[in-house]
Amino acid sequence: KAGVTQTPRYLIKTRGQQVTLSCSPISGHRSVSWYQQTPGQGLQFLFEYFSETQRNKGNFPGRFSGRQFSNSRSEMNVSTLELGDSALYLCASSSTGTSGINIQYFGAGTRLSVL
Amino acid sequence: AQSVAQPEDQVNVAEGNPLTVKCTYSVSGNPYLFWYVQYPNRGLQFLLKYITGDNLVKGSYGFEAEFNKSQTSFHLKKPSALVSDSALYFCAVRDREGFKTIFGAGTRLFVKA
Lengths: 115, 113
Prior knowledge:
By secondary structure, chain A is an all-beta fold. Helix content of chain A is 0%, strand content 52%. The N and C termini of chain A lie far apart (37 Å). Chain B contains no helices and 12 strands. The model of chain B has no long low-confidence stretch (mean pLDDT 91). The chains are: A mainly beta, B mainly beta.
């Protein structure tokens, strides 16, 4: 079974641009969560999608948005990039959601550098 | 509100010695608790979880964790460390009614040969 796939692996953008990151979950998984990882802040929860609906959201500005498609693939968009958005963005999939005892399976991440 | 604390940024241990990576949590009700490990340029990998029952949970790669309700702790342990255990370790908590998993800041484990 293929794991969680995130594309691209690396991105370099300049301030003010926007970026879209993609995540393909494990086949059969309906939940996709996004996290931002930085050395200073650790792993910060962005949002979770389940069956195309955003079910939970972290404390990030509206510049961060996402969506999920009918095949469970998810995209995350960041508009008007700032230097502080430089981070490793991780996607995690789970079979029935982040509630309960389900394990989250993580992709390798997309490393975004904003210049 | 949920929170997780990993009080040590880094833990250093010699190969063959026991290791402990500390984690304390705050959540209403009974939590689900997890440990994940991250190797360089990789995503997080699941190690073990606590749901209910025995306070000592055994996981992958010889790791185990001890749940202590009175101290609200879930420390990760291994009897004999390997150099290959060197990685970044994350503790996570999830309340039983919500959909959000909160991760600690991470503890870097360095095992010296």
